[in-house]
Amino acid sequence: MIRRRLLQGVATAGLLLAAQPLAAAEPIKIGSFLSVTGPASFLGDPEKRTLELYVGKINAAGGVLGRKLELVVYDDGGDANNARTFATRLVESDKVVAVVGGTTTATTMAAIPVLEDAQVPFISLAGGIEIVEPVKPFTFKTPHTDRMACEKIFEDVKKRGLSKVGLISSTAGFGASMRNQCLKVAPERGIQIVADERYAPGDTDTTPQLNKIKGSGAQAIVNADFGQGPAIVTRNVKQLGLDLPLYQSHGVASKSFIDLAGPAAEGVRLPAAAMLVPDQLPDSDPQKKVVLDYKTTYESTQNQPVSTFGGHAYDGLMLLVQAIERAGSTDGVKIRDALQATKGFVGTGGVVNMSPTDHMGLDLSAFRMLEIRGGTWKLLY
């Protein structure tokens, strides 16, 4: 009798559980470590805002696989050691199914071994090519690579009928990586690097390096870096009266760079995503609706200008959500397989077509060449 009652009780409980709404199911935990504070905060802050905004919207629409998303975010302050610590915590304590984060190349690279070992899919928001080359089984990225930036810049230099470039870069992280890529790409693009100058993070004056470039016979200047360094270089170029075309990387693709550099930014060119110029895109451009929708949603809720960095987070989250839905599972291997099978995903960074040998899925057409005019962005092509 007692056994029968227990069985009846279990059966009744099972029916009650089955009758619960799907939203009551265990949430799907997604992890993130971002540089919300520190020198890369102008990248990490919009990334965090974007993830929180769109996780809320997804949950309001019913979640994923009938389950709510739960976002776990840590601020690494731009410190690689912190990033590795938080990646470990996300895996071991928080039990996340995937990670969308890694604001900088340095923090991303520090976390990769932890997430790869745990077989947790990781979509980085950083630019360094070494994140995805060589391909790592569970690591992906959304931004264009530094190599692509070099290729796009040198393409534009050649269009201007120029060939001699003075390169100035930071010694850390993204700057060091992009410098290496530009040195490799230059001969392929018919570009001669006539000066190769470097500065340390935190340097407040780059005039000594720029004076060397001035005497090198350079016809254009390329600055490989992100954060405050490029604004200092830009102002120093103006102060020295260097009347040479100045190129920055996609690492400065936000209004904060224009504000920091001030009037000296006028005429600076850089490769960037369509995110910065959605109104200037033709109606036939497949990205136009996506970037306009994201821009409108972000700016109307966050009360600050949109940036490409928040767009990288949007793309990362949506790629992950679609992969989970296609996989029909939160298993790491199945999510990984679905991610690398992504085809025709239209994001803020471009149209993504991944494969087991390409964990970014963007080609050079995803980059637009912009010029700063009148304190804003002008689409050149």
Detailed description of the structure:
It is a single chain. This protein has 381 residues and is α/β, with parallel strands linked by helices. The protein has two domains: 27-144 and 289-366, Rossmann fold; 147-272, 3-Layer(aba) Sandwich (Rossmann fold). The protein is 43% helix and 17% strand. The protein has helices at 2-19, 41-60, 80-92, 105-118, 146-159, 173-188, 207-214, 228-239, 255-261, 288-302, 308-327, 332-339; strands spanning 28-34, 69-75, 98-101, 122-124, 139-141, 164-170, 192-199, 220-224, 246-247, 269-272, 345-346, 351-352, 368-373, 376-379. A five-stranded parallel β-sheet has the order 2-1-3-4-5, sandwiched between helices. Strands 7-6-8-9 form a four-stranded parallel β-sheet. Strands 10-13-14 form a three-stranded antiparallel β-sheet. α2 runs parallel beside α11 (308-327), α5 (146-159) packs across α6 (173-188) and α8 (228-239) packs parallel to α9 (255-261). The longest helix has 20 residues, at 41-60. It is globular, with a radius of gyration of 23 Å. The N and C termini lie far apart (80 Å).
Strand content: 15-25%
Number of helices: 12
Shape: globular
Instruction: Estimate the helix proportion, in percent.
Output: 40-55%
Record the SSE blueprint.
Blueprint: H1 2-19, E1 28-34, H2 41-60, E2 69-75, H3 80-92, E3 98-101, H4 105-118, E4 122-124, E5 139-141, H5 146-159, E6 164-170, H6 173-188, E7 192-199, H7 207-214, E8 220-224, H8 228-239, E9 246-247, H9 255-261, E10 269-272, H10 288-302, H11 308-327, H12 332-339, E11 345-346, E12 351-352, E13 368-373, E14 376-379
Parallel strand pairs: 1-2, 1-3, 3-4, 4-5, 6-7, 6-8, 8-9
Antiparallel strand pairs: 10-13, 11-12, 13-14
Helix pairs in contact: 2-11, 3-4, 5-6, 8-9, 11-12
